[in-house]
Design goal:
By secondary structure, the protein is an alpha+beta fold. The chain contains four helices and 13 strands.
């Protein structure tokens, strides 16, 4: 490792780049490409879009898709030296950095740990194919004969990945036992 790279690595901080919502992946690729072209990639080693897996049951089949955890925001671990910040700001789809007066303000380490911890937790939960549910939460049934009905969670059984949901059908509250993947949060 050269002295210049050692010097740079001690200067890395996390910044938030605001991007057009829904175009985070495209903006990330543009940033990577532009930094590579300008030979400045060593100043931005990590570009992260916090994602969560969302599971749904449609026509009896379980499907999953990635959804942005912070829509419109991209996290960059960078040393904003020289032209790095202006290059990122000038990329198509970038609104700017989070900060005051147009100046990028780095995240505090506690914020970074919380965000990265949440992302890690979500990826672990995604591996398990579940979302955390709590008693009293409102959910919508997405699968089965009562698809489209809404109800309140009365009981959560994390071991079996099942919920007891009270659904109002024809004016009467009816208890239903549903799998995690048969409901969506409202």
């Amino acid at each position: 490792m050269t002295d210049e790279v050692k010097e740079v690595s001690s200067e890395f901080q996390w910044y938030v780049v605001r991007a057009i919502t829904g175009q985070e992946q495209k903006v990330k690729r543009y940033i990577e490409t532009e930094l590579e072209r300008e030979k400045l990639s060593k100043f931005v080693p990590t570009i992260l879009i916090p994602m969560e897996k969302v599971y749904k049951v449609k026509d009896g089949k379980k499907t999953s898709r990635d959804k942005s955890f912070f829509p419109g925001y991209i996290l960059v671990n960078a040393h904003l030296k020289g032209e790095v910040a202006p290059i990122i700001k000038g990329i198509n789809g970038v609104v700017g950095f989070l900060g005051s007066g147009g100046e990028p303000i780095p995240l505090r380490q506690a914020e970074v740990n919380r965000i990265l911890g949440t992302v890690d937790e979500m990826s672990e939960q995604a591996d398990l194919g579940m979302e955390p549910y709590v008693v009293g939460e409102l959910v919508k049934v997405t699968d089965g004969p009562f698809s489209g009905f809404s109800g309140t969670i009365e009981e959560v059984n994390e071991d079996k990945k099942k919920l007891k949901v009270m659904v109002k059908i024809f004016g009467r509250k009816t208890p239903m036992e549903l799998n995690y993947i048969q409901v969506d949060k409202e």
